[in-house]
Each structure stands twice: as structure tokens, then as C-alpha cells.
Amino acid sequence: MKPRPRLPLKGEQTTLGINNKFMAKKVRIPTPLRKLTNNEELVEVNAATIGEAITELQSRYPGIAERLVDEKGEVRRFVNVYVNEEDIRFLNNSQTPLKDGDEISIIPAIAGG
């Protein structure tokens, strides 16, 4: 007889999130772009890819996409995007898939001299 799987304890995090609710993906907004997100530092999205996340951000916060992507929809070279601390340039760029609970960090490059 196979052992029965253990049920999660109240408040225990599972692959579906706390108490079996799906966890949204979180986008960490850098300070220079927060004026577009009503000063929100962390924004939740329900997108399946980085490209869809940017599209969702644009629908909620008009003007943010033009600062993140070029005319072809690719992330601008002076903008770094990470999914759980991994650079999307080493993954699938804007087609990088997202899972529930992922954290997306947008980090604009800083020029200096």
C-alpha cells in the first residue's frame, strides 16, 4: 500500500502557494520607473513570459513599456531583467517562461565616467 501524501499545515507554503492558492509573479520596479507605477515597488502580474509581463505592465501603467523594450519588443540593451536572479539574456530573453512565485527584477544600467 502506498503512503498517503501529507496535507500541508495551515499557512504552509506548497507548490501552489499558501493554502493552495496560486502565487502571482512579482515584478520589482526600480526607483526611476516608480513614478509610472504610482510609487509601487512590487507589482504582481499573471503573465506566462517576460514579454507578457511587460505587456501587462504597459496595460496598467501606460508608458512603462517604451522604457523597457525597443520597437521590436526586445528588452533594451541598457535594461537588465532577471527572473529569480538569473539574467534573461542567458535564458530566453522576452520569451523566458514564468512560474507562480517567480520574482522579476528590472534593473536599468547606470552610466558613469
Salient structural properties:
two-stranded antiparallel sheet; 113 residues; Ubiquitin-like (UB roll); 7 strands; alpha+beta; 2 helices
Structure, described:
- There is one protein chain.
- The chain is an alpha+beta fold and 113 residues long.
- The protein has one domain: Roll (Ubiquitin-like (UB roll)).
- Helix content is 13%, strand content 22%.
- It contains 2 helices and 7 strands, in the order ββββααβββ.
- The protein has helices at 50-60, 65-68, and strands spanning 13-14, 17-18, 25-28, 42-45, 79-83, 86-87, 103-108.
- The chain has a 5-stranded mixed sheet with strand order 4-3-7-5-6, covered by helices on one side. A two-stranded antiparallel sheet has the order 1-2.
- A hairpin with a 2-residue loop joins β5 and β6.
- The longest helix is centred in the middle third of the chain and has 11 residues, at 50-60.
- The radius of gyration is 17 Å and the shape is globular.
- The N and C termini lie far apart (68 Å).
- Mean pLDDT is 85; it is low at 12-20.
